[in-house]
Design a protein that fits this description.
single chain, 2 domains, 0% strand, flat
Length: 162
């Protein structure tokens, strides 16, 4: 018992990296929930993808990767579980809700830029000049991908600007 972890504390299972272990358990739970929530969506039918194909693929990838890191957390030493800070998750959720509220009235360009900036406020370490430049280029990329590349039916600019 050199690292302060009692090998019998978890029924003989020795968790050497509790931060990764508990984080991966949460990700495995999310992946299982995603598989359950999308279970009624049709998957691949012949040569065409159904609406449930991509969510299933992503959920299985998350499940496999999280399972691998979970196993590694038992082998490799790592940090203890740190203190939980609510600022990050709350600000990111606010950014998602802002996107839902802003996309129709303000269009893709303004909404993407604004939501990127809102999400950046999740960290105290944000450097705003770099974030603003990154948000601008990210917005250009999102417009090129979703509006022009995939031809999705997003309104690009607010109605009052058209």
């Amino acid at each position: 018992m050199t690292d302060g972890v009692d090998p019998k504390a978890h029924g003989g299972l020795r968790i050497r990296n509790p931060q990764d272990f508990w984080g991966c358990l949460a990700l495995i739970g999310l992946a299982l929930f995603s598989l359950w929530a999308g279970s009624d969506l049709p998957g691949i039918q012949g040569f065409s993808f159904g609406p449930g194909t991509a969510p299933r693929v992503f959920a299985v990838c998350l499940l496999v990767l999280a399972g691998g890191v979970l196993l590694w957390s038992i082998i490799a030493a790592g940090p203890a579980v740190g203190r939980f800070h609510a600022r990050g998750p709350i600000v990111v959720m606010a950014s998602i809700l802002a996107f839902a509220a802003m996309i129709r009235p303000l269009g893709l360009f303004i909404t993407t830029f604004a939501c990127f900036m809102i999400a950046a406020a999740a960290s105290k370490e944000t450097r705003w000049l770099e974030t603003t430049l990154t948000a601008f280029f990210f917005t250009i990329g999102a417009v090129l991908l979703f509006f022009y590349g995939l031809s999705l039916q997003f309104q690009l600019w607010p109605a009052f600007m058209q």
